[in-house]
Amino acid sequence: MNVEMMNLNLSQIADFCNGELSDTSNINQIITNVVIDSRNVISGSLFVAIIGDNTDGHKYIDESFKRGAVACIVSRTLGIALPNLILVDDTTKALGLLASKFRQHFSLPIVGITGSNGKTTVKNMLRCICNEYFGEEYVLATEGNLNNHWGMPLTLLKLDKKIKVLILEMGMNHFGEITYLTDIAKPTLVLVNNVLWAHAGHFSGLEDIAKAKGEIYTQLDNGATACINADSKFAEMWEQSIKNPQVKIDYYGNKNTHCYINNSNDVLEIVTAKGIIRTQLQLLGKHNHFNALSATVLALNLGCDLASISKGLASYTGYKGRLEKKTAFNGALIIDDSYNANPDSVKAAILAIKNLPKPHWFVLGDLGELGEFAKNSHQDVGVFAKNNGIDKLLTIGELTSFAGKTFIDNTNDDVSNWVHFANKVKIIEYCKANLPQHGTLLIKGSNSLAMWEIANNLM
């Protein structure tokens, strides 16, 4: 079967996802794209009625047809009687099956990136490099954070024959999720960027998180390459988890490997087997130097030259809500790192602003999904903030009071250097009245708190 994106008929779609066509369906109806949000429907769309935690896509079937959808994938248990429906037992699994079968008709390098922190940055850095080397029109990558069991299949379904490299970000917060995504995408080149205390509440410790992330290494086909950070304490575990002898293991990260950081001052210097890369990142934080190293080892395995790697890394300006520089109403510097947070990313953000104008104020929201580790993690963040240059801590949420108490207990400073607020409106009012005009304000917290609203209201 000759498959191009997206030019499948309804019969092919039903076959791919093991679905059953409703009566009077037009089996020759051509599908031009796939969506799971009725607001994204355009003429020729296939709408997949996903049942999520907060909504049921079946409520939007009529709307999707009105907007131009030509077919829908729906649950057969609902008994909907319309033409051009593909009836399945589980619409989420059907979306995955469709993407999996579709992917099998393409032979190209597919990169899979996971990790606790920095996977979006590594993905975007690699995309910038590949845009330089292959040409932007030949590179497809995960948009935004569409890295889960819905978003990743949608990215795969955008493939077409002109694409020379596909870069996929894979997220997870439970065992089995990376296995599921890897089985669908069949990546040819993979990397775990790091293992940190993200989603720790779903696991018993870091080793469990490493095993869950490391599922990306266990599902590889013949000829695939597994990039492993040689300095990770989980490196040996990951290597041993690779049972397929036809998988190449590419270690990187220290001077015993072919790709490592030699200098990470103003100019980042990365030593490779092909020569030395020198580049200047536009991103704050030493942790982004390691993200650049991860992007580099992936790029080298894709055949990118050193000039493209250097230029691509230097061109990446960052992602919204990730150490994003903004100017406050009074001229102060805002560092909006509100996209999401875990204990390690909070510490990295604090270190990233060390050389920025003082005094340093920090607005901290609760760090979610930490389970039994929540109290100790917040206490640790409070100590770290005080020991690393934060002058004033403003907190919101139920858990951040633990951080505030250790922040002021850690020194003999005035207790007024920590202020806890009932809501974001109160924080905004306080900052408008008190924020020093020559200082720096860092804003960070879990995504569910929408901390970016504070940044936006202080501009």
Overall description:
The chain has helices at residues 10-16, 61-67, 91-103, 119-134, 151-156, 177-185, 206-213, 215-218, 235-241, 287-301, 306-315, 343-352, 374-387, 400-409, 424-434, 452-457; strands spanning 8-9, 20-21, 30-31, 33-35, 45-48, 71-75, 85-88, 110-114, 139-141, 165-169, 189-192, 225-229, 248-252, 259-264, 268-272, 275-279, 324-327, 333-336, 360-365, 392-396, 418-421, 440-444. The longest helix is centred in the N-terminal third of the chain and has 16 residues, at 119-134. With 459 residues, it is α/β, with parallel strands linked by helices. Strand 12 (225-229), helix 9 and strand 13 form a beta-alpha-beta unit. Helices cover 33% and strands 20% of the residues. The protein contains 16 helices and 22 strands. The chain has three domains: 8-94, MurE/MurF, N-terminal domain (Udp-n-acetylmuramoylalanyl-d-glutamate--2,6- Diaminopimelate Ligase, Chain: A, domain 1, 3-Layer(aba) Sandwich); 106-315, 3-Layer(aba) Sandwich (UDP-N-acetylmuramoyl-L-alanine:D-glutamate ligase), CATH 3.40.1190; 324-457, Protein-Tyrosine Phosphatase, Chain A (Alpha-Beta Complex). Helix 4 crosses helix 11 and helix 12 (343-352) packs parallel to helix 13 (374-387). The radius of gyration is 24 Å and the shape is globular. The N and C termini lie far apart (55 Å). The strands form five sheets. It has a six-stranded parallel sheet with strand order 9-10-8-11-12-13, with helices on both faces. Strands 17-18-22-19-20-21 form a six-stranded mixed sheet. Strands 2-7-6-5-4 form a five-stranded mixed sheet, sandwiched between helices.
